[in-house]
Automatic annotation (TrEMBL):
Gene3D superfamilies documented for this protein: Methylated DNA-protein cysteine methyltransferase domain (3.30.160.70), Winged helix-like DNA-binding domain superfamily/Winged helix DNA-binding domain (1.10.10.10)
Record's subcellular location: Cytoplasm
Species of origin: Flavobacterium saliperosum
Superkingdom: Bacteria
Residue positions of the active site: C120 (nucleophile)
Record lineage: Bacteria, Pseudomonadati, Bacteroidota, Flavobacteriia, Flavobacteriales
Gene Ontology cellular component annotations, sorted alphabetically: cytoplasm
GO biological process, one term: DNA alkylation repair
Membrane-crossing segments per the record: none
Keywords for the protein's UniProt record, in alphabetical order: Cytoplasm, DNA damage, DNA repair, Methyltransferase, Transferase
Protein name, entry field: Methylated-DNA--protein-cysteine methyltransferase
Annotated Methylguanine DNA methyltransferase ribonuclease-like domain residues: 5-64
Molecular function in Gene Ontology: methylated-DNA-[protein]-cysteine S-methyltransferase activity
Amino acid sequence: MQTVFINTPLGTAKIKGDENGVSVISILQEGEISKTIPLELKDAVKQLQEYFDGKRTHFTFALNPKGTDFQQKVWKALLEIPYGKTTSYLELTKKLGDVKAIRAVASANGKNPLWIVVPCHRVIGSDGSLTGYAGGLWRKKWLLEHEHPSAQQSLF
């Protein structure tokens, strides 16, 4: 398992993975930035930098998150939320076929090991409020604003 630390506008990102794909991307308050990038993680680092530069809206590197079958199912559903869009926990549970599982879905969402790439930040409250985010609500707000910039100013 290889590990690299990169600088982002939201703190230091820790990326772990191997030849089977990236298994962890997490955010730290601070950390020492890696001087070299392992070959297995170069594509992930490049794509994350492009995302933060506003040049990438989806990721194509291999993912290999570890979790239960249910967590994997939730994370797969999260991957289907388009860039610049949001969904509610209720809508997500409906999509998964069991509205009674809202707490379990929220728990799986909170255990997402692939920060940004599996876009748990795109899940909001049914009333549009920003609810729970392991990285801090200020980061969730930043990510949503980054993905959905204000409408362009009128030319007139």
